[in-house]
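Anyone else keep sequences and structure tokens together like this?

Example one:
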Amino acid sequence: MNDQQLQPTLADAELTAEQDAESNTKTVKWFFIGFLGGILGILIAAVYEPNPPYSRLIGKPPEYIILYTDRYKAKSQRTQVLESAGGSVVSIILVLLLFFLLR
């Protein structure tokens, strides 16, 4: 095998970053942030940028690191926003149910 075959490809960077982001994002935490924080929780999820695990980037070429980091942050933020929005929707539904039941 030559050195070119051992180097990770940019497609590997995208796939690995998305898989790592899915497994590292604490979905339950973001659900409850949205549940308790409502719109503010969603805004926090949209603004907060998680950092990728740097151990995955050791020895990788600069292009790989840039692509991995960008894809990781994008996937993590997307997941955070979706989970916090889901928590917010659930809290709104529960409040409406309580309102109509206690009426």
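And example two:
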Amino acid sequence: MKRTRRDFLKRFLGASGALCAPLRCHAAGASEVGKVYDGWREGEFDVHLIHTGRGEAIFHVFPDGTSMLIDAGDWKSKEKAIPPHPDGSRRPGEWVARYIRRVNPLGTDVDYMMLSHYHPDHGGRPQEGVETAAGRGDYAISGLAQVAEFIHFGAAFDRGYPDYETPVPVVENPTADNFRRFAAWAVKENGMTMEKFEPGRLDQIRLRKKDAYDFHVRNLSANGIVWTGVGSDTHDFLADCAEPAAKENPLSLSMTIQYGPFRYYTGGDLDTSIPGADGAPVPIEAAVGRAAGPVDVVKVNHHGNLNASTGEFVRSVQARAYLCTVWTTNQPSNDSIGRVMSPDNYAGPRDYFPTLPCERRAEGLLEGAWREHLALDGGHVVLKVFDGGARYKVYYLAADDESMRVMAVYGPFDSTGTARFDARRI
């Protein structure tokens, strides 16, 4: 008998109604399920994909306790909205700040903050129901600016600082304008500093508490400028474009983070949406993949949308685990996951961990050939790297409340990213 999408979904519905695909918790983590997440300990590297249903927010804790927040979206797509989480009683920035205070070793102090690019699902913007910081910059208290109502940021980055004209002019939009007003106030009145994010740099984002770990962050791209993989050399993919780039996503900041033998990639909404003179996409995402090289874990570009995770990118990174933030009813796309999971792109096992797709999207995902390697436990996704970077786990935490309850654990996995990256360079 032919199975329908509803049959697939029912097969993987647990007693609580949470979606659970065949990829299940490893025995080593079973004892943690149902308990409160144990949190960060010195020597561990944690990455939290915080699910609010209103955009992307990713919080990092480095092995020495240095912390970094990349993005805090606040946007509701009218056509493709999913429910807010935990609920709609607070705006996303406040939920993100409350989450950070639960997991950050220094509570309300965060060392680094960055806006990957100027879209509201990453930085917030003025909109209905958002208060204005009257008399202190007159910016909308939305997204990252709202997080800053509760959290103090040390150093901040965006793609346009300091003049917002070079190398790629920032096309006027509400997110960019609002972030600039907020940042100007925070620098002047709240002790935050701003720096230019420079592709190729290996020393710009660094451990600030203890320099005792084999840990570093490599800046890969910003404004279509991509590290070549040699020294600090870069290539400007937009230098020959006659018109300013009208698309924000491919201009996103991206980086790799290495801890001992472990390697991780994150890159905002990098995709293929800027056409070149010949009409073909400017290959920024592909070049970033080559610069990153083999990694253990990827934070999926552009929420797993159709125009990201190209075959060229996937063949370069060859990750074991893919983490994906979703916030609309069409994320992640089957086409994007298909490229990630295709054995034609590289050999070896891999698993896919989206935060919380809507029910209808989950139904469609379970029809894919990859369903045995798709986790649909639903919630915040946490990556924990430990044993000096030698191993890592992936957790799902409940997102419908603030309990930090562990819903599933995957791993431990052995790290091989550095070995494969070094082999590529020989």
